[in-house]
Amino acid sequence: MTRTHVPILDLHLVCAEKGFDISLWRDVALTDLYVGDEVVITHLRPCILSNGRGKFHSSAYTTVKIAEGQVQDTEAQIIGVSEINDTCHFLTSDSVVYVIPQYIFHGKVDDLISRLPMRLTLKHINRRVLQIQSVKE
User: Fold this and answer.
1) Name one GO molecular function term (predicted).
2) What is the pLDDT of residue 56?
């Protein structure tokens, strides 16, 4: 056996009115998840921590599936822009965050910031942007 780093992703999921703490280990920890994603996680092991709180851990059989929705067109007023891990994030005036992958926008974030606020039409699935269009005023 060799010494390696094991990826771990700690999550707090909300289901109905309850919140659950989950630690995903190994391959399932590498799943790209974004705030607001609807996910289905199977085969979790319950665990009681030393502080008495409950937590779930992944097992060798755990799967993570992101529920994909249909493509939606949303007209939005963009009031904030940030760059995180090679993706650009747009914050709208109604506090919704849209993720723009690097292959959609690969320019300078400072150029976008100088144009704020801006009105755009975003074609997206679960707030992951596929296409951006300017709104003619």
Assistant:
1) glycosyltransferase activity
2) 92
Tens digits of residue pLDDT in 30-86: 887 776 677 888 999 999 888 888 899 999 999 988 777 677 889 999 999 998 877
DSSP string of 2-69, one letter each residue? ------EEEEEEEETTEEEEEEEEGGGGGS---TT--EEEEEEEEEE-TTS-EEEEEEEEEEEEE---
**Residues near 136 by beta carbon (within 8 Å), at least 6 away in sequence:** none
Q: Which two tokens stand for residue 102?
A: 């690097």
Give CA–CA dist 135/1, Å, rounded: 58
110: helix, coil or strand?
helix
Q: What's the token pair of residue 78? A: 């963009």
Of the candidates 92, 83, 89, which has an alpha carbon nearest to the alpha carbon of residue 119?
92
